[in-house]
Amino acid sequence: xxxxxxxxxxxxxxxxxxxxxxxxxxxxxxxxxxxxxxxxxxxxxxxxxxxxxxxxxxxxxxxxxxxxxxxxxxxxxxxxxxxxxxxxxxxxxxxxxxxxxxxxxxxxxxxxxxxxxxxxxxxxxxxxxxxxxxxxxxxxxxxxxxxxxxxxxxxxxxxxxxxxxxxxxxxxxxxxxxxxxxxxxxxxxxxxxxxxxxxxxxxxxxxxxxxxxxxxxxxxxxxxxxxxxxxxxxxxxxxxxxxxxxxxxxxxxxxxxxxxxxxxxxxxxxxxxxxxxxxxxxxxxxxxxxxxxxxxxxxxxxxxxxxxxxxxxxxxxxxxxxxxxxxxx
Length: 329
Hints:
- The chain is mostly helical.
- It has 2 domains: about 1-40 and about 105-325, no CATH class; about 45-100, no CATH class.
- The chain has helices at about 1-15, 15-40, 45-80, 85-90, 110-140, 145-150, 155-165, 170-190, 200-230, 235-255, 265-270, 300-325, and strands at about 275-285, 290-300.
- Strands 1-2 form a two-stranded antiparallel sheet.
- The model has no long low-confidence stretch (mean pLDDT about 85).
- Keywords: Membrane, Transmembrane, Transmembrane helix.
- It comes from Kribbella qitaiheensis.
- This is ABC transporter permease subunit.
């Protein structure tokens, strides 16, 4: 099994699409760092002067009309239908401050979690395509039958291909995320703020990156399984994209209460170690109207881990069963 896996890894690394996919990942990582640098740039001197002028005008307006604004807001709150929101939530009126004008300062502790989440999607997609291409090409060309002549034990062949597709993505994902973490920190440290980046923050970011690496490895193996089941790379990628667009994108937006059973939300819960979503609670009100309230709910890390883990195991078992019994010519 180990010898077979080494052979499959060499074949995976030598494939042109693998090289192109890895190069594209590194290029996109560079684009993300450039976008971070561009967003972190401070305002020009002229823009800062303009922001200062606007702030001073807003400050004078608040001194003249602030009390009236509060009274108007309280009157508007009293005319709201029951159940009313809290007054302090409805009327969030505070004196203007300089940081409300001009470009806000980029903070490492705020941008890095979102960058890691976005990168985890990119890595999972790239790993899926590379894994699907790795296995699908053998079925399209017919070379899988020659390979089974050399090694007739199908489950060993199946296992070695999945392990190669998964482990082959581990160093790629780890390097891409390490570059993104280090590059973002250096850029924001020079142009923004890295205050509050404590040891706990680094530990949380490292945990997020580690889970993204594991997800990339799983996506590589799943790409191989889909290609094995459908016998073609394009079919595997098409089915996956169709599911994401139709089920997750279209039906998922209508079936709000089914969100905990969709892949995307469980993916987020796994990567971010808990995530939140909103469900509308609509009801008739005493005055004959109809009111809807968005309720925030939490999908736990444990739910995401069990959901994704069971899905991966079921698909691996399905792929093994099909590959073991299917006629291959």
